[in-house]
Write a structure and sequence with these properties.
single chain; alpha/beta; Rossmann fold; six-stranded mixed sheet; four-stranded antiparallel sheet; 31% helix; binds adenosine-5'-triphosphate
Amino acid sequence: PIDHIDRALKIDDVRFSYLPGKEILHGVTIDVKKGQMVALVGPTGSGKTTVMNLLNRFYDVDSGSITIDGTDLREFDLAQLRHTVGIVLQDPQLFTGTIADNIRFGDPEAGMDRVIDAAKQANIHDFIESLPEGYETKVSDEQNIFSAGQKQLMSIARTILTDPRLLILDEATSNVDTVTEAKIQAAMDNVIQGRTSFVIAHRLKTILNADRIVVLQHGRIIEQGSHQEL
Ligand code: ATP
């Protein structure tokens, strides 16, 4: 139906509990239209990470639905979903392999030009180039050479490389120095630019830049609107 055409992500009356009898989300509805950037905010324990877990399909909703362009999340196979939706996590996993392989994880066929372009947009290129073996440096979860902030930049580079239509970002809360913080913010701006985005927001600047701010409290949306409206 017409209703779905300009709608990128729709979370519709979603209820969810991890444990029977202890509902965490009590009918959450969030509508992200194409080209919009929507910020989800709320106090600790309000359910933000739970919304993220559902979007990642780590769990299924109890009732209600989540759709992308009108297609239920459950109808996507996981590979297709990973190509449609770019997810930037707070603490992304590194895989055993070179830095280049880690960046092109979403598209192993990607050539070095695309890897470097993604790294540049994610503000991590200069750091990689400063390593003796550059993009060929071997990394793994055990052999982690990245700071928390640099890991986020790696996650952003990975996402930029796959050029997804829809972005879901979990902004890091981890303590990073102000220089890395500025790099993350600029990289976030680069990745969000021109894409439909849904961001679990912790930074004031992200919230101010959002087309709409959605406020979650105790598993319910209590307010939404632009920064001026709220
Ligand atoms: P924060 O800002 O601190 O990350 P949040 O808004 O992301 O908080 P959630 O992590 O979604 O909040 O937690 C919402 C509620 O769900 C909390 O009451 C939490 O205890 C509960 N919860 C989270 N994960 C689980 C789980 N795996 N099993 C059971 N309960 C959980």
